[in-house]
Amino acid sequence: MGVKIKSPPEWGIDRVPERIKELRTIDFFVLWSSLGIGLLVFEAGAFLSRPFEEWGFGLGLGEAFMVSLLGSIIGSFLLAAVGVIGARESIPTMVSLRPGFGIFGSYLPTILNIIQLVGWASFELIIMGEAAESLSGLPSPVWILLFGVWAFIMAIWGPSRVVREWLEKFAIWFVYGSTIWITYMILTSGGISTPVFRGTDLSTFLLALDLVIAMPVSWIPLISDYNRFARKPEDSFRGTFFGYLLANTWFYFLGAALYLLYPGESIVRSIAILFFGNVALLLILVDETDNAFADIYSAAVSLQNINPKVRQWIYALAVTVISIGIALTIPLREYENFLLLIGASFIPVTAILLVDYFIVRGKSYNDELLYKKPFSVRPQAIITWIVGFIAYNVFVSIYPVMGATLPTLGVTALIYYVLSIIWR
Known about the structure:
about 0% strand; about 75% helix; mainly alpha
């Protein structure tokens, strides 16, 4: 008699049943602190202290900490606020865009989200492959393949099991311990000779702030894919905000410090140089795969927003294969531009979603808005999104002294609110 293997349940674009909504504050704290921790965040943090001629911002260590903390507070609040929508409505993020953009209109940001998720997964595999190669001597492509397969298995496993069976029991403790050790070694090394404050001008400070905010904002299109499983909306908000705030601040700051400590080395090599650095790097790698898992899983969920008839695991497999292929062929040097492009694209979407749900719709989405108008498009959101994207780039290139994130959020929110009133 054959043995039947039962696959885990898939919650695609439908509302998650109440009996499945069991994740608590601590679960979200672990999940989002884990997703906020990673080698790519180290890499982004290094841009804060790199000199201008290396496409960095030239901040001192004190300024880098201030930017990391303030940017993380703003970005984590936006991330947690969007997560509340998923927790209240029990739906993934791309589905939550349907009332604002229309069901058919939501396909446009969904396609962009799928593209960025494939990019994120590829970047994660690249940097994990480089780190594993430095530890083992095995070539990076071998590790890229292995990490890709493991991330795919986690995507099939599903969010609740990944959080409770992998992160909370094993991975998060490894990475907390290794990060504390790296922090201790950096702060006691005495090898950073640059001034703590370099007197950075306001426009540079605000653009660096945008880079920090870009990291939590990049998770906004994913957050409700996980926070829809929240027991209560308050659990979703508290765990997400404090978990991501801690991790993002910590890792951006450490990335800046590592560059100042070893300015001629890559981030991976800088960690390895530290006393017991190879061990710390290995422990970070244990947890790093959850970032690639999240990118693959959410790309599959986003694809189901366009065509829910295809099984989630099939989409996940396709995303994994494409991400591995990209990781084997594309260098990492365009990473900063990639982050800033994400900010330009999804900050306006964030403003539209928050205004639509909390103000225009009165904190409630019915099934007709979410599922029963398949060809609907709301020009109000599309127009506002285009204006917001242009505004972000204008602020960056023409008025950098203002920064870009906060002005774009304000402009986009106001335009969408006005259009929603006069154009119903």
